[in-house]
Amino acid sequence: MSAATIVPTRLRQHARFGLAALALGAFSVFGSPAEARGPEGIADVAEKVIDAVVNISTSQTVEAKGGGSNTMPQLPPGSPFEEFFDDFFKNRKGPGGGSKGGDNSPPRKTNSLGSGFIIDTSGIVVTNNHVIADADEINVILNDGTKIKAELVGVDKKTDLAVLKFKPPKPLISVKFGDSDKLRLGDWVVAIGNPFSLGGTVTAGIVSAKNRDISSGPYDSYIQTDAAINRGNSGGPLFNLEGDVIGVNTLIISPSGGSIGIGFAVPSKTVAGVVDQLRQFGELRRGWLGVRIQSVTDEIAESLNIKPARGALVAGVDDKGPAKPAGIEPGDVVVKFDGKDVKDPKDLSRVVADTAVGKEVDVVVIRKGEEQTKKVTLGRLQDPDKVQAAVKTDEPPPEKLVTQKALGLDLAVLNKDLRARYKIKDSVKGVVVTNVDATSDAAEKRLSAGDVIVEVAQEAVSSGEDIQKRIDQLKKDGKKSVLLLVSNGDGELRFVALSVQ
Questions:
Q1: Is 234 annotated among the ligand-binding residues?
Q2: Which positions bind substrate (predicted)?
């Protein structure tokens, strides 16, 4: 995957047909995954739904970059063309050494093309957010070529979805959402869209994978298909053989920008919920639990007596969030939410986001090896979601007054000078790390000077001696690792498991 690129499938209009011919020609060398004979029903599906699929045309005003069309191209040093282009552009410069017409080129219009589909005959269209992002004007183009100006109803950047509306000039055909949860690997699907601005184009393939996480967003759960999807297909529908929309084509993986049979669609179960809220509120109102979570590694699972490793580890609890009054604490591992199993943090993020604000749900957590059920009334996730990341400052030389060495760490009791040196808030309690052995497990787990160890094996510590005593006891108990609760200077917590061997 490192040689490939994850590409949003919107098409900048200047690519046009020369690029399309080149990309499609290159693709044919490898052979299309859809060359095999498909089921008989594909033509019936296409005929039934083609008039509900639309092209999306957008225009945007952008600032011209210095030099405009007279900017010298970037050439590698020593290129045989370097001298030629140098002389050419020098001759085109006007008075004062600037390019003819000056460097202050006026703003220019750019056009983009994508796809969409009609879900309501009143003129409601679903597409991708990246198709219409930053657009000054949006137009919907029907299958017969009719072009109508559209308005934006709402967008959700986290799932890359948008809803548009327009006034129908004539009766329309609409499509409905199917159940993407019922898809099976190998099921046939049909993609319709506007690749390379060619207009309504039908391709077919199979479902290659489900619930695919490609780390493009917080709620990744894509349908992967080998149906040919190219630039310009963004926002177009993926149909099952009943003619129901089971996904919105969004991304491809490609080293060249053309289809190699790896495309991704947002599943209809996600799309339908997002679209309903955008139509009703013009925005997303997602559920909020009020916790920071991280993965349960094998080492962490061993430390917490969880077999097998699973769930989402609560690293921090928001003081103003719903989890706090429900009794959820750092160190709890969420394994079930509202009756749904939680295998990893992404599972929890998705199911919480999809749950209605204000709903009371049962949250099953494992605490000190035992399951407990907590009742939580969900709050609302504020948008935009402010994702906080721990930011490390340039670290000064290691603190010389070290009271204890353990686990490859130099540890010191927190005092006023150390708080000032590492910018640690007064509310943070524990033992400060002043140096990390570069060859240690702690360094590999990214502990660094200025981190504060708050708990060891879920017990509070205030000195290096406390930490050493806990480690010695764990070794006697036959434990292979120790679980640390670590804070940064701002008080943001995370769990780290280190080897004690």
A1: yes
A2: 130, 160, 232-234
Residue pair 376/328 in contact by the 8 Å Cβ criterion: yes
Q: What is the pTM of this model?
A: 0.65
Query: Is 160 annotated in the active site?
Result: yes
Q: Is the peptide bond before 255 cis (omega within 30 degrees of 0)?
A: no
Mean pLDDT value across the chain: 82
Q: Which one of 99, 115, 160, 259 is the catalytic residue?
A: 160
Question: Is 130 among the residues known to form the active site?
Answer: yes
232 is in an annotated binding site: yes
Q: Is 160 annotated as ligand-binding?
A: yes
The answer to whether 130 is a known ligand-binding residue is yes
Angle at 294 between CA 291 and CA 299, to 5 degrees: 135
- Smallest CA-to-CA distance from 45 within 146, 175, 143, 142 is with 175
SS3 state at 158:
coil
Q: Is 167 in a helix, a strand, or coil? A: coil
Sort 476 into a burial class: Cβ within 10 Å, 0-12 / 13-18 / 19+: exposed
Catalytic residue flag (residue 234): yes
User: Out of 130, 208, 221, 349, which one is annotated catalytic?
Assistant: 130
pLDDT tens-digit readout, 41-57: 899 999 999 999 999 99
Q: Tens of pLDDT along 144-161?
A: 999 999 999 999 999 999
